[in-house]
Amino acid sequence: MTTKVEKSITVDVPISTAYNQWTQFEDFPQFMGGVQQVEQLGDQRLRWVAEIGGVKREWYATILEQRPDEKIAWAATEGATNAGAVYFFPAGAAQTSVRLELEYEPEGIVEKVGDQLNIVEKQAESDLEKFKSFIESRNVETGGWRGDVEGQT
Questions:
Q1: Tens digits of per-residue pLDDT, 74-84?
Q2: Strand (E) positions, 41-145?
Q3: Are strands 45-52 and 35-40 parallel, antiparallel or unpaired?
Q4: Domains of the chain as residue ranges with CATH
């Protein structure tokens, strides 16, 4: 059974700063719990290594759509069944609303129990809070990729 999670947060940085930081996939371990490494293998391909609930997973994902200051969407291509998107909306002069949508298929007993306990939902909420602290404390992104990936979603 597929599980869906949607969480939002408002960050006190301009939309371009929030978006640009989210394109720096290799920095995700700094604000995503359980994510040990994200390796960018090209404009559209990523290798993820994570440990959540004591289960270590490695998977590859493809960026399906990327529109500067609006949206980044991805899906796992091997090693896991998950997909997601992050959306960026202006929320004031120097504020951005960030909405994270995840969809995943729990595998194995540990992940299924974790799913029943809403572990991924809680982790997504925590990760957004950590992103907020990370980007607001810096007030500048660590980099940014402004290219477009046309909608394959």
A1: 999 988 888 99
A2: 45-52, 55-67, 71-78, 82-92, 95-104
A3: antiparallel
A4: 3-23+63-138 (3.30.530.20)
Query: How many Å apart are CA 27 and CA 52, to the nearest integer?
Result: 18
d(CA 133, CA 67): 24
Over the Cα atoms of the chain, what is R_g?
15
Determine the angle formed by the axes of helices 119-138 and 108-116, rounding to 10 degrees.
Answer: 80
How many other CB atoms are there within 10 angstroms of residue 13's CB atom? 21
Query: How much is the average pLDDT of 78-95?
Result: 92
The pTM score is 0.88
List all residues 6 or more positions away from 33 whose beta carbon is below 8 Å from its beta carbon.
52, 123, 126, 127, 130
Rounded to whole angstroms, the Cα distance separating 53 from 57 reads: 11
